[in-house]
Each structure stands twice: as C-alpha cells, then as structure tokens.
Amino acid sequence: MGRGARCADARPAQPPHSVQRQAGIAASIPRRVIALMRRYIGRPAGFVLPALTLAGCGMFDNMVDSGPAEGNVGYVSGFLGGVAADEPHAALAARDVLSAGGTAADAAVAAAFMMSVTLPSRVGLMGGGACLAYGAGHAEADAIVFPAGRPVGTGGGDRPAAVPLLARGLFALHARHGRRPFESLLAPAEQAARFGTRVSRALARDLAPVATPLFADPQIRAVFAGSNGAPLTEGAMLTQVLLSTTLAQLRVAGVGDMYNGTLAQRIASAAPQAGASLTVPELRAALPRVVQAVTVPAGNDIAAFLPPPADPAGATAAAFQGGNVGSVGGALPASATVVTLDRDGNSVACAFSMNNLWGTGRMLPGTGMIAAAAPDTGAVRAPVLAAGLAFNANRRAFRAVAAGSGQGGAPAAAAAALRAAIAGQAPTVADPGRFNAIGCPGLVPGREATCRWFTDPRGSGLAAGAD
Question: From CA 63, how far away is CA 58, in angstroms rounded?
C-alpha cells in the first residue's frame, strides 16, 4: 500500500456564492498548492477550486500529497511487513528499508551489512552465510548459499582465515529479489560505523567472556576496549572508522572490488599480518551458488529449507518432519539470523557466520574487518546454517518463515519456530538453539492482519513491523 490519500467521495463542488466565501476557501488551501495554481493556471485559488474538484480528486491529491517519496522512510503506509533479527540495530535498519518501499531481500541485505558493524562477533564482511528467498506469486523458493570457505592452498600463519563471501552472497540475493539500489542498502551500516552506534546487549554478551584473549590483537583492542582498557559494555559508543572506509569503498567501487580489485589486493596484503594467508586468485574464484531449496509437504503448504552442506544432512527439514536430527556440531553460538517479510508477501530467511565466535580473533590491518576462521581446521567446524519458510503453492502466497542459530541446536530451533509460526503462535525452543520467525496464518497477500513476528526472548534481538 503506497503513499497518497484517496477521495471517498468525488461529488462536484458547489459554486461559491460570494467573493468572501471564495477567499475563505482559498485561505484553507496550503500555500504550496496556491503557488502551483498561480504558476500553472494563473488564477487565484478560490476561483479554480471548483474546476479542480470537477477535474477529479486524483489531481488534487497529487498536488497536496507531501508524503515521503519512494526510498524514504514513511513512503509505505499501512502494512509494511516485518523483520526479526538477533541484533536490534540491524532489525531497525531492515524495518526502515521496508518502510521506504524495499523488498524483503532489500531489508535482509541492509540488516546483514548493519550486523557486520553492530555484531561483528558473528557477522562480518570476511564471513559468509546462506539465505532462503520466496517471491510472492511463485510456487518455489531460492537458496543462495555463500559460506566463508577454506582456502584452496595450504596457507600459512597461526590463524587460518576463511575466504569471505558475505558481500557477494548479499549481492546475489539482491540481484534476484531486490528493488532498491544496492548501494543504498550499504549506506546505513557505513554511517553507523563512521559516526558510531551504541553497543547492544547482543554484542556486549559476545564481547565480555572472550575479551582477554581477543584483546591480544591491538587493533581489536583499539576498537572494542574503552579508555580504561576494559571491554565496551552495553550502551557504550562504538565507532569503527576503518570499517566505514571499507564499506564506503564497497558502496562506491562495487562488491567486485573486494574480490578482484583494490580491496582484494589490500586483503591479500593484510592477511599475513593477521596470521592468515589469502590470495587474490582465491578471492576471485569465490562465488555464491543459487541452488534448489529442500522442500517437504506441510499440510496444504510447502516448506522449504536450506540444502546441504549449508544445513548438514538436511537437519532442519528432518527436524520439521519430526525426525531425529542427531549431532550436527557443537553448541558454539557462532551464527546470527534475520528473517524479513514485505508488504507484497516476499520473504527472506538468512543465517550468517564467522565460523567461530569472533572468527580468528584477528583484524586485518587498515581494513577494520575481522577475519573469519577457516572451517574444518582442527577445532573450527563448518557452521550449521538453519532456515526454513512455508508458502501456499496453490494461492502462491506466504505463510511463515524462521531461522535458527546455536550451531548443533540451530536445526531444531528453526524447525520448531517454523511450525509455531505457521500456526501464528509464539515459538518455544529448547537450549542451545535460538530463533527468529514471522508467521501469517491467513497468508500474505490477503490477510496481513494475521501476521506476527517473533525473536527469541532468551536472546538480545528485536522483532519489528507495522500494520
């Protein structure tokens, strides 16, 4: 539902009976409208008002509508959709995108880039992830898979780093399902990094337990420690100038610069100083994949899930069907999720990871980026990326979406949250899993009033929307 008032009654206006009445009518018209009348019609407002009314209320509406233009917060009135994310700043950034007329994919992209600033312990430009995307009016869902992978070479150094894929993965998601300019979705994160943002509870919880070993890296200490040397706490101001410069370079030069340009060369040069080894050819060769989602019946709906190896052995689909998930990794909370829904019924569920909490624990000099840990190297295992969504194939409409984190507990969390969201109920998930979910039992488009959005109450995220 876009901006712009609508006339409920378009009856012709009665002619004025006196100059005094004409003046009174004209006085009630905004000055901007009077100026337009005089410029294009050349008559006082009072004399042309009857003609404007006879011409149709649509013309008058266009003249008096001073609401925000598309691309600005407030452009969408009424139902705009919803978002749930593991970090509040990211959820609000996504909601602003929906309010400005963006799609669910646009909102997810903005949230991911914002989390690279506000929750770098789990989401970063040097990391990766995977997303499910459903387009309203379709009878299938996409899976865009872009995990931070192990370098092809044996590498070197004491902190093997993963080959980053977050930026390329988000670009692929946007290319298939986005509407707003990609660079506009980077801008909020860039500004938050440059001008500072308050440390959320989610980030403070990830920072405090590991501050001592993490601050062995002087660059990380310079950003995440206060003037007293202690880790930043909830509510403290966090400024990341170097990261903002990197985000600005991505915005101006494009995502390709990180994989085959100046930024790629800077990453390759800085990696050895962070105890890692990454080469420009490895960056150039790293590409996201668009694959078919795993689907299973869900009553009158179809449920879609991320496929292996993003979700090992299809654990989330198995859990949704009531199967025994078994062991799919440890309980290390190394991932974060976001789910989005827009006014048209498009939906996205994403899970992101640095493959380890705080990745390698080293920042690449001069970039502001923390390196993700190379997977399958000793204690570091590949992340479990769990997400699912449900849609009605006959009506081609959205029903529910959910994503789970908590490594070994992620598949069960995502599956339980999706089942509850389909019914419009608040999910209940056992430890160590955490969830974000949106459910519209009455389907969207159609019955938007049935929609509800949820974030795990045991976490520190935020669910937001408007109707």
Answer: 9
